[in-house]
Amino acid sequence: MDSGQIREFEFEAVLAELMRASKQYEDGSIREDAPMQGGDRQYRVDLTGIEKSSGRTIVIECRSGASTSLRLLEGLAPVVEQYKALVPNGEFVLAIATRLAAERRAIFTMRGIEVWDLDEIARRFQDQLNGIQHPVLRPLLLSIAALHNPTAPKTPEALLSAELESIQSGREQASAYQRLISRILERLFVPPLAPLRWEYSDAEGYNRRDIILPNYSESGFWAYLRERYAADFIVVDAKNLTDEIGKDEALQILHYLKADGAGLFGLLITRKGLSEACQHALANHWTRHGKMVICLTDEDILQMLRLKEAGGEPESVIRQAIETFRLGL
User: Fold this and answer.
1) C-alpha–C-alpha distance, residues 257 and 263, integer Å
2) What residues contact 99, with CB distance under 8 A and at least 6 apart?
3) CATH no. for 157-327
4) What are phi and psi of 294, to 5 degrees?
5) Using a CB cutoff of 8 Å and minimum separation of 24, what contacts does 172-177 make?
6) Phi (first) and psi of residue 7, to 5 degrees
7) DSSP code per residue over 200-219
8) What are all long-range contacts of 122-126, with beta carbons under 8 Å and residues at least 24 apart?
């Protein structure tokens, strides 16, 4: 099941169905594509309703789970926030058809906007889930609801997430971090990727990479990645630094990437993101040499684990990171 398969109008219709079946909202108050007037401009709001308990109008902007990068979400927050002028005493919600990690939810909650990701929807409407018929959303929401059962055993993904959050950034735990990232990547992507190779050096012995994932996939995302970005091997460099990754760290993985060697695609996994100099170096090597290196942070890794846990496709996070990188050039 992949939340990326869910189109926005389908997600909106299912959410409206759940809200109408719930006793939390006044009968007949749930409206889809509701018109609202703001000065000389008319807006269309995806969903509105009236809560029974408070009598307040709830205003909901719906989004598919196709784009959840930090940059895209940060750009979406003002879109939802504009409705505050239209409904001064309302409640404002971003409903999104995926599972969001805490940092991504905080983009909205710090602005007074609620976030209904699939976890929140499964919790809020757990008694109504069996009534929906959508072939992707129904099993996905039911599986997420089961994960929140306090008597259920911890999943491997939940245990790996807790372990990641417990490791402090810094050189003292660099080895532990690298080995944990290798276990996480195996859990997420093996199969379809082949078992990883650990601490592999190039022929000269100068450039060693922590993790190599052979990519022999014949279909789907990984096959596309191999064909488009020469990703015969997924080259991974995991950096447990306390600060942003600098240009020198980026050059280490870029030097390892070779068309006749491991290929031209890599993942730079880091705790704190990239410095501006590092971003420029990655952009320069892509435009001049065709080397594609994507940065993933803790929040990206946690997002992928949450998707895997729910039966989704964690590689969608990498796909979104590539889109964000290229569209930002």
Assistant:
1) 6
2) 3, 117, 118, 119, 144, 303, 306, 307, 310, 312
3) 3.40.91.30
4) -110, 135
5) 173/240, 174/239, 174/240, 177/238, 177/240
6) -80, 155
7) EE-TTSS-EEEEEEE----S
8) 122/148, 123/148, 124/22, 125/18, 125/19, 125/21, 125/22
Whether the Cβ atoms of residue 201 and residue 188 lie closer than 8 Å to each other? no
Structural domain spans, the chain: 3-147, 157-327
Report the top-level CATH class of 3-147.
alpha beta
Each of the 329 residues of the chain gets a pLDDT tens digit; together they read: 444 467 889 999 999 999 999 989 999 999 998 887 766 777 788 999 999 999 999 999 998 876 666 677 777 788 787 888 788 888 999 999 888 878 788 888 888 889 999 999 999 999 999 899 888 888 888 888 888 877 777 889 989 998 998 888 888 888 899 999 999 999 999 999 999 887 555 455 444 567 899 999 999 999 999 999 999 999 999 999 888 888 988 888 998 899 988 899 999 999 988 889 999 999 999 999 999 999 999 889 998 998 898 888 899 899 989 988 998 88
Rounded distance between C-alpha atoms, residue 296 and residue 267, angstroms: 7
